[in-house]
Specification:
It contains 11 helices and 4 strands; from the N terminus they run H-H-H-H-E-E-E-H-H-H-H-E-H-H-H. It has 297 residues and is mainly alpha-helical. It has a two-stranded antiparallel ribbon with strand order 1-4. The protein has a two-stranded antiparallel ribbon with strand order 2-3. Helix 1 packs across helix 6, helix 1 packs antiparallel against helix 8 and helix 9 packs across helix 10. The radius of gyration is 19 Å and the shape is globular.
Amino acid sequence: MIEAIGFGISVLSLGSLYALMALGLVLVYGILKLVNFAYGELVMIAGYTLFLLNGSPLPWFVMAVLAILAAIAASILTERIAFRPIRDTSLTAMLITSFAVSTLFQNAALLLISPRARVVPLPDMFSTSIEVAGILVQIRDILAVVVTMVMLGLLTLVLNRTVLGIALRAAADNLKMTRLLGVPANLVISTAFAISGLLAGTVALFWLGRTASVTPGIGLEPLIVAFVATVLGGLNSLMGSVVGGYVLALMTVGINSFLPQEFVDYRQAFTFGLVILVLLIRPEGLIRSRSGRSSGL
């Protein structure tokens, strides 16, 4: 029983991070049909913001807010400078541009900061554990679940109860028609990138909490996780991206827990093998979008 509780907490905490990353990726894909491969670098930017603020008199909470704001600003600037000028050309051009932006961010970190891992400041609570049902649970895992639930709830309200949310959903359905109806497309797309940056910045805090350091290539793993989770859950469904994140976490934790020791080095191969098996059964993903809409929430 105790092992089952620990297993469930691990799945929920890891799945929460996966779900938020996948959700940020799908928000942009739903409108522009662009898989933004520069998305993972937002985690790196948030991490280096924390590193640069290390030693300042600011409380950690303020540094965390500034790190998230840096990720949001980078996401908005990426849309404004890199994607907007070529938005009406082709998807291939935008896809190549996303790779170029990712490479640019990584090389900037290599040249301006360091190729080596840099320690980021973390609060004491990130390394503190409490006893729950007879097992020790890290506070950061509980915080990850709580923060994710709050953000998912707020995002659902925004998408379904506000004018901006309705505009986002309309743009995801048909961007061209949304423009013809007078909705400011640039504002809607920038908002999607801003929300995407907010989600990535939030994930960065907990992702860095697991490693306590940042490197120029730290964004690759969360990017791959987000992409696999979105494909698993359904690229055209926000709800599917969330479900895909938790299912991928269930696979990951399950394989790490039950895989024989001699096969541990191949755990990623087993995880992706399970993903491929699921997609063979349901090629459209676990959650179908309703009536072709991309706003599954």
